[in-house]
Structures are given as structure tokens and as C-alpha cells.
Amino acid sequence: MKRNTTIDILRGIAFLLVLLGHSFPDSAYEFVSPFTEFFHECIYSFHMPLFFVISGYCMHHILMNDNLDLRNEVWKRILRLLVPYYFWSLIAIIPKLAFASFMYLPFEWRQVPLILLGDSPSGTLWYVWTLFILNIAFC
User: Fold this and answer.
1) Residue 81 to residue 2: CA distance in whole angstroms
2) Cα(129)–Cα(48) distance, rounded to whole angstroms?
3) Per the confidence metrics, is the pTM higher than 0.90?
4) Neighbours of 99 (CB within 10 A)
5) Which of helix, strand or coil describes residue 28?
6) Span 109-123, pLDDT tens digits
7) 3-class DSSP state of 69
8) pLDDT tens for each residue of 51-67
9) What's the gap between Cα 123 and its chain centre?
């Protein structure tokens, strides 16, 4: 199978933009220069949507397959996306409990059911849950 170099280039650009975006301080938490704030806002305006577009493009090839087995596709996404999401969400509870006295918003046990709905205590896993929901919706 021939690799699509355009998609590979877009993935690389998206990866670098995420890396750059997370390298700049967030102006909500500390003072940053106007240039840094502008650069940060520009990157954040499209870097995650770019990942979703690339995922949708790759999903297009799967959906165009005449032998699409919906049950198999859903199961693959559960294994690839939801299992790691739930695993790391549960792991994230441990340090939140251990360092609760130092946190502005400590973890509360009533938040556990929210993990099932995509609200990870990690906070950074929102895109995995969203990607799963979008993949299933398009299947």
C-alpha cells in the first residue's frame, strides 16, 4: 500500500504545532508578551481541528471499503481509544488524591462517573473521548 505523503506531512505539522502550542505559557496563568499570546492563540485556533480532519480523512478510506464490518470497526476503536482513555483516567486519580492538599481543585469521588462521559481527571484526554465519539458517529 502506497503511503500518502501529504497526510504524513500534515500529521508532522500538526504534531509540531501541538508541541509548540504547549511550549508557550498560557496567558490566563501568567504574563506573556503580546507576540507570544498571539502565536499561542493562532496555534490553538486550529491544531486540534487539524488532527480531527486528518483522522476523518483516514476514516474515509475505511468507510469506503465495501466489506465494512461495523461491529469490528467499533470494537477496534474501543480497544484503541477507550481502553487507554479509561486506563489513564483512572491512573490520573492517584496523584490527584496523593497531592489533594496542594491543589486548587482537588479530586472528588463524585467525579468518577463523569469519566464514563468523557470528563477525565487528567483533563488532557478530552480529545481521545471526542475522537472515539466522532469515529463511531461516522461509522
Assistant:
1) 25
2) 13
3) no
4) 11
5) coil
6) 888 888 888 888 887
7) coil
8) 788 877 777 777 777 67
9) 10
